[in-house]
Amino acid sequence: MSWGRVLVRVVVGGIFVGHGLQKLKGSFGGPGLEGTEKMMESLEMEPARENALAVALAETGAGAGIVLGAATPVVAGGLIGSMVTAVRKVHAKNGIWNSNGGYEYNAVLIATLVAIAAEGPGRASVDAMFGKSRWGGGGGLFALLLGVGSSFAVVEMGKRAAEQKRLADNDGES
């Protein structure tokens, strides 16, 4: 079943690479770094420029890591963090269904990434070259906890930085 794992890794990882390049370079009709920075500002993810660059690089790099099957639980955790943050900041208020702007697609990607981390990337992977074609339940749990934890940390830091920015702007108006 190794070919099935490779197929899932290439499709899911490739989609994340494309999604990251949309944010980073404006590829595939994306907003580019400037547009991603504006989105981060609107979501109170300060500092906006740094968060825009971080998400763009994380999605691009971790997507490539999934494709290659390299450090699978770690890169899956990074992508899960991005998806959990998207759900929390953008999609949750719209309910589950994607047709209403909900988190259906994000949930499928999160579940797929947990499964990839748990089941491992298979024999045709970088991880397998180091004896880790399968990570087991611990790998999946690690990826999920890393993703959820990093999302909560980044959102909280963004809120605090946005509040500090508002206070600084108000002091400048006095």
UniProtKB/TrEMBL annotation:
It holds the Pfam family DoxX. Its main location: membrane. Keywords: Cell membrane, Membrane, Transmembrane, Transmembrane helix. It is found in: Cell membrane. The chain crosses the membrane at residues 62-84, 105-123, 135-155. GO terms for cellular component: plasma membrane. It is a multi-pass membrane protein. The keyword Glycoprotein does not apply. The keyword GTP-binding does not apply. Belongs to the DoxX family. PANTHER family: INNER MEMBRANE PROTEIN YPHA-RELATED (PTHR33452:SF1), OXIDOREDUCTASE CATD-RELATED (PTHR33452). This is Putative oxidoreductase. It comes from Paramicrobacterium agarici.
